[in-house]
Write a structure and sequence with these properties.
Jelly Rolls; seven-stranded antiparallel beta sheet; 4 helices; binds 2-acetamido-2-deoxy-beta-D-glucopyranose
């Protein structure tokens, strides 16, 4: 490398650190991120009126695929429609968790329903202390990270990424031949405090690896993680236990039910159509959060072709300090993470010398070739 090239590379690195610091400062200024799960719990019990008058459980009878059983269903804690926002040229995002309406829902930190096409994308950026689950619904998303792993998600594919002590990666929508946008969900899950500094890892889960249960003529469930109507998913994919189901209904009036462990927080997000739960109707793009007062959730579709993701995660009882894509449990630990990133150490050794190949864009032909590699 010539001196001038070295100068250029160092220049880019300073620019990266500067940009990241600025983004971080803005995030820090605009939100007071230091709130604890304990605050959330109090807020939740206040919202649901738990302390004032304990509710009688509502029982719901359903056939779980093996036998007919009765479960008590959880009551709705909070709901709202995720509003679409422009995120620069070529990107629109509906964010539900991670907004002022629902800052976080432990262990979940963020949920985005994204529509993105080139030149928009999420080029080289760091993460620490959390896991991300990307569920690609339409189009193709290419990814590459500084450990050397890379790949492409096709419709129905998922990626589970554990940032652990640190990762820098790039997520870029493929330039599709028909010019359409890619659409998917990205869910951020907190990591237990003792795993914050684990080695980063990636698992791609292909559509064909996720079993689909045809419950009846009008209901199909894709079991991404967990167990639904007697069918188990292939493997555990995240360090923090997460159950993730995609419900697909065809006819209006289709009933559904799903059990969850007691110590899980549960919510659903409507991709298409509308649903009724406990006599309340929720329109398209609603995010609906449940109390922990029952063994599961149950409801009915109120439009034809309704689809939603139903997700639960084990509640983590720990502080959450979030600073952009860095998640820690205390200010002291966050300062260490910033220092590690800034000086390229303790997991961030490659952070400033690495540049992804896909950040400048990737064609459909290149993506298909990359998938075969
Ligand atoms: C499926 O939908 C059709 C049309 O609404 C209905 O007649 C049928 O009973 C439904 N089947 C089940 C199992 O819900």
């Amino acid at each position: 490398m010539s001196e001038s090239e070295k100068g250029r590379v160092t220049g880019i690195n300073y620019l990266k650190v500067l940009i990241f610091t600025l983004v971080g400062l803005i995030a820090f200024q605009s939100c007071s991120y230091l709130t604890s799960n304990k605050d959330n719990k109090q807020l939740f019990s206040f919202l649901s009126g738990q302390e004032q008058n304990p509710k009688e459980p509502i029982n719901y009878q359903f056939n779980d695929g093996i036998m007919s059983k009765s479960i008590s269903v959880r009551s709705v804690l909070k709901n709202f429609i995720a509003i679409e926002q422009e995120e620069g040229v070529g990107a629109r995002v509906r964010r539900s968790i991670g907004t002022m309406k629902m800052r976080r829902f432990p262990p979940f930190l963020m949920l985005d329903d994204f529509f993105v096409k080139p030149p928009a994308g999420f080029p080289d950026h760091p993460h620490h202390g959390q896991e991300t689950i990307t569920y690609n619904l339409k189009g193709m998303i290419a990814h590459e990270d500084f450990t050397g792993s890379k790949g492409v998600l096709f419709p129905g594919d998922l990626q589970f990424m554990t940032a652990g002590k640190g990762i820098v990666h790039s997520e870029i929508p493929v330039s599709l031949e028909d010019g359409s946008a890619s659409n998917g969900l990205q869910l951020w899950v907190d990591l237990p405090a003792e795993l914050k500094n684990c080695e980063p890892r990636y698992r791609d889960l292909r559509k064909k690896q996720t079993p689909e249960v045809k419950v009846n003529d009008n209901l199909t469930v894709r079991v991404i993680s967990g167990k639904s109507y007697g069918v188990d998913s292939v493997q555990e994919l995240a360090y923090t236990p997460v159950h993730f189901y995609h419900f697909i209904t065809s006819k209006k009036g289709t009933e559904f039910a799903q059990e969850f462990p007691k110590d899980f927080n549960v919510f659903f997000y409507i991709l298409k159509g509308s649903l009724a739960v406990n006599d309340q109707v929720f329109p398209e793009h609603s995010a609906v959060f449940f109390d922990t007062d029952g063994e599961g959730v149950a409801g009915t579709s109120v439009s034809d072709d309704a689809e939603f993701v139903l997700i639960g995660g084990k509640i983590l009882d720990q502080e959450v300090l979030q600073h952009g894509p860095f998640v820690e449990t205390s200010r002291e630990r966050m300062i260490d993470v910033f220092r590690n990133y800034q000086y390229g150490m303790n997991g961030f050794e490659n952070a400033h010398s690495w540049d992804s190949k896909i950040a400048g864009g990737i064609s459909e032909a290149e993506a298909r070739k990359l998938y075969k590699e």
